[in-house]
Amino acid sequence: MKKFIDIMAKAYEAASRAWKKLIEKMEKYAPPGWDVEMELMFSGLMLIIFALAFGATFWVHMSEGVSLRLSSGNSRNECESMIWVMRNTLFFIIPALMVYGGYIKAHYRSFKKGSMAVYTMKRVPDASEIHRRCLALPLGFIMITLILAVLLAACGMHAYDAAVPSWAYVRESIPFSYWRMIICLY
Amino acid sequence: MGLFGENGAGKTTLLKSIPGFISYSGEILLDGEPVSRKNICRISFASSEHSFFPELTAKRHEEFYKDHFPLFRQKRYDGLMDFFGLPENKKLKSFSTGQQNQYEMILALCQGADVILMDEPFAGNDLFNREDFYKVLLGILEPTESVIISTHLIEEVSGFVSRAVLIRKGKIVGDKTISELDSEGKDLVTFVKESYGYSEDRVAKALENITGEKN
Description:
Distance between the termini of chain A: 61 Å
Number of helices of chain A: 6
Order of helices and strands of chain A: HHHHHH
Low-confidence stretches of chain B: none
Strand content of chain B: 15-25%
Oligomer: heterodimer
Strand content of chain A: under 5%
Number of domains of chain B: 1
Radius of gyration of chain B: 19 Å
Distance between the termini of chain B: 39 Å
Radius of gyration of chain A: 23 Å
Largest interface: A-B, 19 and 28 residues
Helix content of chain B: 40-55%
CATH architecture of chain B: 3-Layer(aba) Sandwich
CATH class of chain B: Alpha Beta
Shape of chain A: flat
Number of domains of chain A: 1
Number of helices of chain B: 9
Order of helices and strands of chain B: EHEEEHHHEHEHEEHHH
Largest sheet of chain A: none
Structural class of chain B: alpha/beta
Structural class of chain A: mainly alpha
Shape of chain B: globular
CATH topology of chain B: Rossmann fold
């Protein structure tokens, strides 16, 4: 037991050191004095909540669809569910993107808050420095969010495909593929 | 060089135009070259609005300046921090106004620039602070460094400016070196008053109009 506690304590220390190092590195991509740790934690938490919320709502949607089919023997319109998956993914992406837009605005504004530090940034030899510090983290978050959205949508599609037997599809002739998403949108 | 003028004369506008903080028409040259990212670090700027990062400590500022300004004057920085007794590990937003002004000037003097712009740098500082600063400034400046200072404290700075430029409504209305003024037997305050057409009996006339009594 003592050995296990020691291992856990060491792992915690190593994780703390790695986290601190990450924060120090990220500070070069944020306005000087910006609370990078808070921004990273908030964004991470937001993405976890969005992913869980997506999973939960998808589960409810699937359960409703399957029970409807079993009780009535009706076929299911696959496009309806695909659009549901995409619409729900967007439902979570849009607020996230709005938050990241807010970060960008707040980053730029921070150079005029409490002082006119923007004058220092304008004297720095590298003209891109201010933009790098204002855009890098939000753009990174946007990329992570889009990747997560694609993964969630793909998981949703595959789960739907695995759970609903082919005879229940209205459009059986079209095999499952990402192209179907585009067809469905039309 | 002292830059003098009434409120709204255009002193701050001129100082902010030099490094290109605001847009302007015309041309500003630094040793014959337009001011650009290539040579902008030859210009430093101390302002009463402050240009430091309030959330950073002095220590972190020092690191930022060392990273971004290759000619950062470390020895001068250490000496000035020691002289003013400013704390290294306290966020600048927690400094008093006087300390913030001092730190703003320290950064401007230590950036490694040879044109140092100071816009009302003593706003909020007491007389002792200002006197200390004048003494230090005179002692540390090298012949390659030029300070352009905009202030209303004409009498206080008259002892250490070598040239006075007067601005009124965005135009230069007077430009003389102190040695020219000396040879004319005038002091800086007289020169400013004359250039501005200051009427000595202005106050007496105003009082007469207000009170109706002859003074």
